[in-house]
Amino acid sequence: MKLSFSTLPCEGWSVDLLIASCQTLGYTGIELKEDHLNAVSLATPEAELVQIAAKFRQAGITITNIGSKIILNGIRSDEEKALTELKQIIGMASVLGAKGVRIFLGSYLRFVEQRVQPKDEVQIIAYVQEACDYALANGVEIWLETHNEYSTGAVLNQFLQRVDRTNCKVIYDIIHPYEFGEKPEDTIRLLGDRCAHVHMKDGVPFEDAKIHEWKYTPIGEGQLPLRSIVSLLLGSGYDGYFSFEWEPKWRPELKELQLEVPSVLADYVTYMKQLAVYK
Length: 279
Prior knowledge:
Layout: E1 2-6, H1 15-25, E2 29-33, H2 46-58, E3 62-72, H3 79-96, E4 100-105, H4 121-137, E5 141-145, H5 153-163, E6 168-173, H6 175-179, H7 184-191, E7 195-200, E8 202-205, E9 214-217, H8 226-235, E10 241-244, H9 252-255, H10 261-274
Parallel strand pairs: 1-2, 1-10, 2-3, 3-4, 4-5, 5-6, 6-7, 7-10
Antiparallel strand pairs: 8-9
């Protein structure tokens, strides 16, 4: 089992600190969040990106992907600008040797009544196709995260068929299909070999039934069937990373815990090693 983590909670960490943390804690992969507060951003000179790539490579750590903030729903006025930015991030990924660039589709939703959002799927598909074609020329894949209205394997299976690009893959963020009531075995079956990466986390439903999303918890303390999900993925032939995504920046319930990031990263490795399928 290959373990990685997202640098989302690692604002201000240097590349050297990220590498040392991977080596100390037992991670062989890392997702680099593209942001001026993180280790890499669009402002990072190409020469520096080359050096960063060399450091991770020499340390034996795989840069799995670049986590972009790009979100497409086909009707936002700034999406042409977002597509231009996405192409820049694809160039970054190519220099860094990252396999994929993560993007989102649709619109953020929190309440059940928001599950149907305005969008132009024809335009979304056109944008994704253009991004995939550009990425292919740079040896990179576009990874759609299971998020928003595009959370389930059922929706993404149809969407991927319409996009019709072999380098369009999926990050299976395990909590979001579950929030929609889709069983993990169905999500995994429907995504098939398009599942390029997995985001691990845990949570419980909010008491208010009007809230669509789940309340996040430390790994292993929620109600997600983590052992079953990992077993199903490995049984399906999945050989990518199980990547830990800790989100106190976005999730008040995690921020309130005031847990130190190094401790949380260490706990994830310990938990994953305790799973029977790991042994």
